[in-house]
Structure prediction request, 126 residues.
Amino acid sequence: MRNLRVIDAELKRLREGQANELNILRDEQLIVIRQSLILCVKCSKKSKLSLWTFIQNLWLVPADGYEGSYWDSCEIETCHIACPRCGAENYICTHSQKDKVINLCTSYSFKKEKIFQKVIERKDKN
Prediction:
């Protein structure tokens, strides 16, 4: 029978090996996401998602009795992505690949800054 120190060492080795494998798979997953092709509704050309600019719309939350007003992020559906070829802003909510874009941005734990070429914030003054 093995002693506790040997078992602990074996468990640690297995965990480290799993962590390395997980990191490799996560890196591959990000590459595949970034290579996904998205169609521009204006110029009708496809480009890799990694070349697009994500425009995060912000809305002003009014002050209440507890805290002052502040800017908050809008849902991804109400944001835009800018085509790397023609610069046109594509409204995600009405985009022909809306479900694909939303899934790629929300179903995995990658920040938008890792997925897109650039992320900019735009305050909605309405």
